[in-house]
């Protein structure tokens, strides 16, 4: 029987209490949870994760506005639409365009502005250009700012800290190094990990993230990406343990979605059930941390599933009339006015679910509490 199906009600309640008290799970506990198939047992797992989330965050949900300000990138990640070799239309917005966008974003009800870029040399090699963007976003919106600049050196991170950047997002994607090399081709595993540590040491909150859905990944010749590491459960166990090492303030998982024009384009899309299970396990392993429900994989219906699995943040919110891209962009072919990943649509759905936009004060208290811990 599945991990949660076999528990009595008393054991189930004790499990939730133990997790709230930060009792650790073993690797076998995690394996057993992730291999669950029984519907009732899965529902119990999702409900337990929501109970733990409620203990720490109540009904509050935090919202991040996604500003993908440059889709240029020098890297060749095999899973990514924006990898340097993909022949796609790209853009880089100007400081004036960012200022105009931020004027609109400041009244939308989001808690943080997420400034994301590919490793675009215009910013990556010239920190002053990114620092100017952080300054504009903070000045115009008065909100905390997350930066996702890729791997940058410690001087760059110190400058971001000085400029007031609040969050540094950098996803390892996997802690199985053999698989990492296939995904983030030509990039150092260690340098990526170290950049996150440097940001934390500089007083910036950090986010790490992993992918799931590897078992379906295939290269264009039909070969599995990496036969020895294609098991999604073992991969998730290794990656959850890897993420714990840097004590991140926010942890995420996303289902790999095959992207046109990339080496993994021919892969079959995995269902997002494993992502939902991993979200619950993340809630058990990181009970008091922020866990996103991204709109980028399955829009608002997908957000509902992820919040019901234990997430408490909504990311990849894009204004109704914005022409900017998401990262995975499940809705790339959808017209702008049908896209529905704007803050108003999100807040309406939260209210229908009995959840609420959390206060800005509580969100900033979270950022500061972790800054000083
Ligand atoms: S994942 Fe990031 S670093 Fe890798 S190719 Fe895409 S934009 Fe560039």
Automatic annotation (TrEMBL):
Binds 1 [4Fe-4S] cluster. The cluster is coordinated with 3 cysteines and an exchangeable S-adenosyl-L-methionine. S-adenosyl-L-methionine binds at residues 79, 171, 173, 184, 192. One of its GO terms (molecular function) is metal ion binding. Its cofactor is [4Fe-4S] cluster. This is Pyrrolysine biosynthesis protein PylB. Residues 59-296 form the Radical SAM core domain. GO terms for biological process: pyrrolysine biosynthetic process. [4Fe-4S] cluster binds at residues 73, 77, 80. SMART domains: Elp3. The keyword Iron applies. It comes from Methanimicrococcus blatticola. (3R)-3-methyl-D-ornithine binds at residues 114, 148, 252, 294, 315-316. Keywords: 4Fe-4S, Iron, Iron-sulfur, Metal-binding, S-adenosyl-L-methionine. InterPro entries: Aldolase_TIM, Elp3/MiaA/NifB-like_rSAM, HydE/PylB-like, Pyrrolys_PylB, rSAM, rSAM_sf.
